Amino acid sequence: MIALAVFLLLNGLFLFVFPDSNMLDFGYATLDKFFDLSPWILTFLVPAITMRSLADEFKGGTYEILQTKPLGHAPVVSGKYLGCLLIVVMALLPTLLYAFSMQALSAGNAGIDVGGTIGAYTGLFFLAAVFTAIGICSSSLTSNAVVAFIISAFACFILYAGFNAISRMASLASGAGYYIEMLGIDFHYHSISRGVIDSRDIIYFISVIAFFLLFTQRNLIKRKP
Fold it and tell me: Which residues contact 124 (CB under 8 A, 6 or more apart)?
């Protein structure tokens, strides 16, 4: 609950209080600042939610007890994943008030771009889903929750912004940089955020989620007594 409160507090401060990012000072109805800011906050929020999901099971010895139950590794991983993802979604749901507020405060018929907002929220959901899968995978690598948080936050940052940074190197200006940028989450997130839901972006997100969940399952199999 603390992590959710911090997420909403930070968004509220940046979007309605701080002058450089205050949405009310733009002169037109837009949620662009929110959708630009949220991925960076989720980079730390999601690892904070997922860091104890499996690490504490290993540390407390309850994972061995869990193995005595008639459950395979896949249900354990999917259960942990869906539970953490539900918490993240609960953090995102109150932010819908931002959209309703901007729509109500806009003058005349100049409301927010509804199609673009729906696409942006879709992208934000898939981004949160990928970060959650990364967090669960990181938690399966260690019995120390703090280490799991650091690994997860670093991995989320690299996968979100790292490929974009590499693609901007002068040596890749010939065209290879574009394909490297496509490997990053940032490219596909902003693609959906424009309001156009492309099947290639959806396939990318689902593939990344599946990869990290399968890798988590592999880690659990290796830990099998």
Answer: 35, 38, 39, 92, 189, 193
Pairwise CA distance, residues 112 & 32, whole Å: 10
In contact, 140 and 218? CB cutoff 8 Å: no
- 168-201 residues labelled b (16+ CB within 10 A) or e (exposed): eeeeeeeeebeebbebbbbbbbbbbbebeeeeeb
Q: How many beta carbons lie within 10 A of that of residue 109, not counting itself?
A: 5
H helix or E strand, kind and range, residue 136: helix 114-139
Type and span of the H or E element at 13: helix 2-16
Distance (Å, whole) CA 168 – CA 164: 7
203 neighbors 128 (Cβ within 8 angstroms): no
Per-residue model confidence as pLDDT tens digits over 77-126: 999 999 999 999 988 888 888 777 777 766 555 667 777 788 888 889 99
CB 123 within 8 A of CB 193: yes
pTM: 0.87
Residue corresponding to tokens 């399968």: 214
